[in-house]
Design a protein that fits this description.
The chain is of the alpha/beta class. It has one domain: P-loop containing nucleotide triphosphate hydrolases (Rossmann fold), CATH 3.40.50. The protein has helices at about 5, 50-60, 80-90, 110-120, 125-135, 150-165, 180-200, 245; strands at about 10-20, 25-35, 40-45, 65-70, 75, 95, 170-175, 200-205, 220-225, 225-230. The longest helix is centred in the last third of the chain and has 18 residues, at about 180-200. The protein starts with a helix and ends in a 9-residue tail after the last helix.
């Protein structure tokens, strides 16, 4: 086993994902290999429609691949039943969305409790955990505010707290800064880096936002359902205005 594989919390080999059948079939992923390490930020970048979100969804145990294997935290996700895959996701994966997806009639603290309440926690115990986490990320004074009373950056912090409240080892983020200004987006990425490092979590981010590339530990460049290149040298990360421009013309193997 390679050094990369030993350090990876999430790995996939030969991932294929097809939608539809016959002449209408679309191949979203075409034999993807990737290792995602704990304690790091891994960014998936590339043009729209290249398969980034599909890959993220498979690695997060939401979608099942047509072919290939996914290993996460020592479990072969592709060998699990739908029920067991759902249970794995609920225990081990946190989600951060582009549009925050906070429930408008719940306070910030109540939004954070949702994963715990669904897991069977009492409301009192869930709120206690939520307040601790909101305090840690500098949102204690907004815990009783509704989402509509919060700024975009504050809402995203609440969404991150909700994603972390059940202490997952894997965190997946779909365009977490696209609705935020640069200063706020930078603060969110600093928080996500701290989350990755402090918890030895595997943090995966799909993004088109080249302003945040500097925060990545690993960059996986995708095009046409394939990973074209993986870079782990932060000094070499592309900081052009378009992730699409960064995708190399021909595939190369991972280091």
């Amino acid at each position: 086993m390679s050094k990369v594989e030993q350090q990876a919390l999430v790995s996939c080999r030969g991932l294929v994902k097809n939608y539809g059948t016959g002449n209408a079939m679309v191949q979203a992923l075409r034999g993807v290999d990737l290792d995602v390490r704990g304690g790091e930020l891994t960014m998936l970048v590339g043009p729209s429609g290249c398969g980034k979100t599909t890959l993220l969804s498979i690695l997060a145990a939401i979608l099942h691949p047509t072919a290939g294997e996914v290993w996460a935290l020592g479990s072969n996700l592709t060998a699990l039943s739908t029920a067991r895959r759902t249970a794995f996701r609920q225990r081990n994966v946190g989600f951060v969305f582009q549009q925050f997806n906070l429930l408008p009639t719940l306070t910030a603290a109540e939004n954070v409790t949702v994963p715990l309440v669904l897991a069977g926690w009492t409301k009192r115990a869930a709120l206690h955990e939520a307040f601790k986490l909101l305090d840690r990320i500098g949102m204690h004074d907004r815990a009783d505010h509704l989402p509509g009373q919060l700024s975009g950056g504050q809402q995203q912090r609440v969404a991150i707290a909700r994603a972390l409240v059940h202490h997952p080892r894997v965190l997946v983020c779909d365009e977490p800064t696209s609705a935020l200004d640069h200063k706020t987006g930078t603060a969110i990425l600093q928080l996500l880096r701290a989350v990755a490092v402090e918890g030895e979590r595997a943090v995966m981010i799909v993004t088109h936002d080249s302003r945040i590339f500097e925060f990545a530990d690993t960059m996986a460049y995708m095009d046409d359902g394939q990973i074209m290149k993986v870079e782990r040298d932060r000094a070499s990360f592309v900081t052009s205005t378009s992730a699409t421009d960064a995708v190399p013309a021909s595939a190369s193997s991972q280091p």
